[in-house]
Specification:
The protein is of the alpha/beta class and 398 residues long. It has ten helices and 18 strands. The protein has a seven-stranded mixed beta sheet with strand order 14-13-15-16-12-17-18, with helices on both faces. The chain has a six-stranded mixed beta sheet with strand order 5-6-7-8-9-10, with no helix packed on it. It has a five-stranded mixed beta sheet with strand order 4-3-2-1-11. Strand 5 and strand 6 form a beta hairpin. The longest helix is centred in the C-terminal third of the chain and has 19 residues.
Length: 398
């Protein structure tokens, strides 16, 4: 089964008409995208968009063999003219299946937002799932195995991938293609980096893909360290790396700090950002979690873990060289050894404090030095290390 993506952009395309934003300003050439539309084996057209016939011609395809045109979501604005020779577009009722004379079967899936998802099975048995913009499956039952290809709004609804993974509809070999791409993420390397973290990729308009043929599916790193200064966006970046995965365990190392209203507000803001399916554990005992098998871990943050570790070995005392230093080194080595051996997906957050002023107190300088050593040791065990500055993630490793 062959799929030609006549467009991969959001409903308004990219760049959006008359939009002055930075993402639209650089969405030129291969990064420009028409509204998403799929041509399946030249026989099925999903989503009729303006200029579909010209888009097909540019891709070396013809719409002359199209036997069915399906719409996946409400189209705003003026009605799109149906090119001569094409059947009138329609939608399949949720839960119903449509059989084409070409041997394709199309099943309509209900969504949690206006629109319809389509599961297409080709004559050769290959399976494709297409989701409309801004939507995720609603009440998805256990899938009959993973789809060979999923085409979805990965940027706008990463939780849709999480739901599909829970149901077994997306597996390690599923080729996940991001469409409905809008100006929320700058095109180019930043878009590719964000998608790779979710195990997805983007392709230019006009690309023809063969469903079921092995592709170089982005490999999600097992261990990632996200560094950054205060309010740099490091926690948001870390959360973003796992939002397309279900059943994440969020490990909060800061505790509740009863009576501290400002700290409670910080904790509340973090909780509000996280998907509702994630679980939370408030602990600094990271080694047992790393040694266990289970859901991905998001550890926020190592700098607070270090504070707890230094408290436990009296590392703040001026005379800590008598045993506190050795005890702290042992704690750090135990942690990094557990990171090295873990089989869980781990994303950890830590503060980068070595670029600021030298602290005025001995304890402040000691903490700064020990956090630098911890960050370096932890980063050594990670496949991927990022530094977040002003909300922009810079790749240091991986």
């Amino acid at each position: 089964m062959e799929v030609t993506l006549l467009g991969t952009g959001g409903p308004s395309g990219l760049p959006r008409p008359d939009c002055p934003c930075a993402a639209c300003a650089v969405a030129l050439g291969a990064d420009a995208r028409a509204a998403a539309a799929l041509l399946v084996d030249g026989a099925l057209l999903v989503d009729l968009t303006p200029g579909a016939a010209f888009a097909a011609a540019r891709a070396g395809r013809s719409l002359g063999g199209v036997r069915q045109v399906l719409l996946s979501h409400p189209h705003n604005g003026p009605a799109v003219e149906v090119p001569a020779g094409l059947p009138q577009p329609g939608r399949v009722p949720d839960g119903r299946e449509l059989a084409l004379l070409t041997g394709h079967r199309v099943r309509a899936l209900p969504m949690d937002a206006p629109g319809t998802g389509y599961a297409v099975t080709g004559p050769d048995g290959q399976r494709l799932l297409y989701l409309p913009p801004g939507a995720a499956p609603a009440g998805l039952e256990e899938a009959a195995g993973a789809y060979d290809m999923v085409v979805a709004d990965v940027v706008g609804r990463p939780d849709a991938l999480a739901r599909l993974r829970v149901a077994g509809a997306v597996g390690p070999a599923t080729d996940v293609i991001a469409v409905h791409l809008d100006h929320d993420v700058p095109p180019g390397r930043e878009l590719a980096r964000r998608l790779a973290a979710a195990g997805a990729r983007a392709v230019p308009d006009g690309t023809t893909l063969t469903v079921g043929v092995y592709e170089d599916v982005p490999d999600v790193p097992r261990r990632t360290l996200v560094l950054g200064g205060a309010r740099s966006g490091k926690s948001v970046e870390a959360e973003r790396r796992l939002e397309a995965f279900p059943d994440v365990l969020y490990v909060a190392t800061g505790g509740t700090r009863n009576g501290d209203g400002e700290w409670a507000a910080r904790v509340h803001a973090h909780r509000e950002r996280r998907p509702g399916s994630w679980r939370t554990a408030e602990t600094c005992d990271l080694v047992p979690l790393l040694k266990d098998d289970g859901a991905p871990l998001l550890v926020d943050c190592l700098s607070l873990w270090l504070t707890d570790a230094m408290d436990s070995v009296n590392a703040w005392d001026d005379e800590w060289g008598g045993g506190g230093e050795r005890a702290l080194r042992a704690r750090v080595e135990e942690l990094t050894a557990a990171v090295r051996e873990t089989r869980r997906t781990v994303v950890a957050v830590s503060n980068e404090v070595g670029s600021g002023i030298v602290p005025a107190t001995p304890s402040g300088r000691r903490y700064r030095d020990e956090l630098g050593r911890l960050n370096a040791a932890f980063a050594t065990e990670c496949e991927h290390v990022l530094l977040v500055v002003a909300g922009q993630a810079l790749t240091l490793k991986g």
